[in-house]
């Protein structure tokens, strides 16, 4: 098949290579001249054979909205747009209606696999009409992992379902990463454990906590023991926040995912105002020592 791919960042670039390796013809567009195949989005549309398929891998929000808006005026009835970025599911209905008014199909596709997807394949969660999904199956089959389709691909429901599923996937990912991180810190804190990396590696086979994320943690420690080269600042892409908001809307208790999200917020505070308040309160009711801002942790300890 022939497909246009908009956005050749870390994932989009590798997706182009994987599709080409599976025999598909890919025309890619990116603002960076060193990676793009065409000079503009308009040229990409002109290069594609009709009916066209255009896959978006651009940042969620305004950039996705602007790209869909431009495509709605340049594509034709019978063409198909697939948003593979991390758009919020509520945006999908807007994009689907905008394109649908001109006879252009729309699918939302949650994509998981990161920079490893080129070799391992990508987990795909798709929302949209049956006919549009069926039409794009050769593309999905090239991108997903080898083996049974159901092990790496799902048609999750109508427009919006794919990105909703990916949002929840990422919320779960927050909780898993936080649990591994806390376990790592506890191992590091105990002097009895002299080989923290070895303990984590021993968990990667046979144990009930084995996972790909654990394997990546082991690899990260092998590359940078004690994480000496990085800070503790942890960003969030937005999907963890959206997941917690959905939990509130549906009255679904999600304490682990919520705590993991708030832990990331805490990682960005060099001197937490909340913890200052905790220290002050402990001093007020119990007379516990309050350390000055210049307190040297190596020289003393708190209770």
In words, what does this structure look like?
The protein is of the alpha/beta class and 303 residues long. 49% of the residues lie in helices and 12% in strands. It is built from twelve helices and seven strands. Strand 1, helix 1 and strand 2 form a beta-alpha-beta unit. The longest helix has 29 residues.
Topology (elements, then pairings):
Elements: E1 2-6, H1 10-21, E2 25-29, H2 41-47, E3 53-56, H3 62-74, E4 80-83, H4 89-100, E5 105-112, H5 117-120, E6 123-127, H6 130-143, E7 153-157, H7 161-189, H8 196-202, H9 212-223, H10 239-249, H11 255-266, H12 273-286
Parallel strand pairs: 1-2, 1-3, 3-4, 4-5, 6-7
Antiparallel strand pairs: 5-6
Helix pairs in contact: 3-4, 7-10, 7-11, 8-9
State the gist of this model.
The protein has twelve helices and seven strands.
Count of helices? 12
Main structural class: alpha/beta
How many beta strands in the DSSP annotation? 7
The outline comes out as elongated
Terminus-to-terminus distance: 65 Å
Stretches with pLDDT under 50, minimum 5 residues:
295-303
Oligomer: single chain
**What string, H for helix and E for strand, traces the elements in order?**
EHEHEHEHEHEHEHHHHHH
Strand order of the largest sheet: 2-1-3-4-5-6-7
Q: What does the main sheet amount to?
A: 7 strands, mixed
- Residue-averaged pLDDT, rounded? 91
The radius of gyration over CA amounts to 23 Å
In which range does the helix fraction lie? 40-55%
Into which percentage range does the β-strand content fall?
5-15%
């Amino acid at each position: 098949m022939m497909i246009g791919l908009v956005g050749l960042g870390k994932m989009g670039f590798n997706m182009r290579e994987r599709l080409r390796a599976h025999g598909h013809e890919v025309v890619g567009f990116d603002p960076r001249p060193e990676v793009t195949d065409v000079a503009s989005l308009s040229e990409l549309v002109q290069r594609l054979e009709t009916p066209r398929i255009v896959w978006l891998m651009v940042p969620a929000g305004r950039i996705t909205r602007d790209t869909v808006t431009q495509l709605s005026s340049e594509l034709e009835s019978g063409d198909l747009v697939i948003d593979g970025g991390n758009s919020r599911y509520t945006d999908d209905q807007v994009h689907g209606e905008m394109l649908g008014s001109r006879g252009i199909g729309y699918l939302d596709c949650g994509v998981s696999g990161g920079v490893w997807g080129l070799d391992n394949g990508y987990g795909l969660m798709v929302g949209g009409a049956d006919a549009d999904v069926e039409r794009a199956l050769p593309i999905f089959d090239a991108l997903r992992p080898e083996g049974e389709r159901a092990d790496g691909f799902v048609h999750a429901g109508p427009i919006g379902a794919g990105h909703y599923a990916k949002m929840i996937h990422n919320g779960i990912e927050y909780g898993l990463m936080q649990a591994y991180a806390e376990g790592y810190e506890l191992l590091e804190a105990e002097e009895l454990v002299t080989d923290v990396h070895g303990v984590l590696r021993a968990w990667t086979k046979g144990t009930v906590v084995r996972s790909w994320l654990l394997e990546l943690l082991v690899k990260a420690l092998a590359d940078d023991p004690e994480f000496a080269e990085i800070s503790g600042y942890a960003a969030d892409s937005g999907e963890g926040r959206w997941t917690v908001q959905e939990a509130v809307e549906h009255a679904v208790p999600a304490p682990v995912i919520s705590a993991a999200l708030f832990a990331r917020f805490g990682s960005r505070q060099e001197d937490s105002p909340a913890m200052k308040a905790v220290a002050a309160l402990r001093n007020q009711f119990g007379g516990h020592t309050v350390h000055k801002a210049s307190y040297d942790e190596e020289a003393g300890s708190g209770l």
